[in-house]
Amino acid sequence: MTKSEEKLTCDSVKLPPLCVRVLIGPNLACESTQAPVAPPILPLTVLQFTYLMWLARNLGSVTSALTHFTDFGINPFTTEFAERSISLAEYSGDNITESSKSLLKDLFCAILRVNIKIEGYALSFAVAGSSSIHELQVDDYVKRNTMILERTGHLRRIAVWASSNGCIQPFVEIYIRERKIVIQTRILQFNIEEWSAYDVKRFEWGVLESLIESWIKSVKTSFEYFFASEKQLCEEIFRGIVPDIEDICYEVIVQDYRTQVFNMIYILSFSNPPPDKIFLILDLYQTLDLFLNKTGFIAKPIDPSEATVHNQLLAVLADKISSNLSIFEKVLLYHESSVIYVGPVDPLPRYVMHYLCQLCEHKSTLRKLSLPKLPSIDEDDLILYSEELKGQSELSRHAIWIIMVIMSNIEGKAKLCENGSAGHFFAMKNIGYIVHEIAVHQGLKEVIGYDYYDKLIQKLDHAKFNYLRLELEEIIKMRDYGGE
Known about the structure:
- The protein has 23 helices and two strands.
- A hairpin with a 6-residue loop joins strand 1 and strand 2 (about 135-140).
- By secondary structure, it is mainly alpha-helical.
- It folds into three domains: about 1-115, no CATH class; about 120-140 and about 165-335; about 340-480, no CATH class.
- The chain has a two-stranded antiparallel ribbon.
- Helix 9 packs antiparallel against helix 10.
- Belongs to the EXO70 family.
- Pfam families: Exo70_C.
């Protein structure tokens, strides 16, 4: 017996040498004095397929039988192999035996697992706030190449057969088990940390901010690269076989990770960021909202109570956003400073406009939320503010109100200047900065509206005119003084 023949024997299965030579081919069964050469990948012949079925039944699983074939360079994962396997089961008709069910279950599992043996490709992404690059090995069923589309067809055909014969449940369980293992393996590559509410309260805000940013980036990347493909795979294999079976499979597969995301966002909601860090809470809200929309949990939650939990969690974050915005506006309204900066721009307008521009980058999210009431203002300014804010949306009212408060602050500081020309110059350069920031940030311009933007340009023109008029008067005075 040759070495090749010995390799196809085991304690429970033995074939005569002649059978082995016929099954694996004479070229592979013959001994040779030449150096061993890697055998070519060959499709299964009818005789080899018949032998595989017999070998699998004796060994107890298709996986064990496939090992013998792949060792000899024979590729069982071909269209012919899958079709013959299913045809064998279909041929049995009403005489379905447990062995044929077991055979197809092993085949179903083996096709799902074969992607683990093939090296995936790497996806690189930079985590916010970090210079490190994370390499993600993506499995073949995410890559969606031609070979995988073929295997997907095999899986669906097996699932259709199982459904028509009333034994779909074990195949669904196999699918969920194998894909959960793959998803969990991919998620572990992110090294996502889990914190307690105590940790969140204990961390300094600078440290916590960096951790939250990295966590948000990891979550977004994970469902961007994994969950969309996972949902597509479930639909391609199970859609139309049993009502809603593809949605159930998908939700069960990602259920553990979903719970982890919800728990983490709930814990992070205990943090108390300063008013100017409202954007981090907005990012958390957007992450949760996007996660729910991408995974479809709002439309079809597994447990009806989950929809309530999701909405409550969104409401907690929405309240925190509203509270932070209200605190910021009150601090801005009662900010008092008589310091006149001779530099290019006063720090307060620079800080507030940067805040406002960032805020308007989240305008789609803010428009979904119930924003707080504007702080009370003096009766002298009430009429002016009411006219500007009349007919505006909630977000527009807040953006215009913040700009009006800054404009009032600038005008008040300008009046404190002993030199009238210096006061007008201070007003001109700061109003000019506000107009410039609005001009270069289209989102902010859309929020406040073009009508109010035109009014700001008119204010800038008026400030320029007042400054130039006073400067011209000074020049004329100097000329007259020199003429004397």
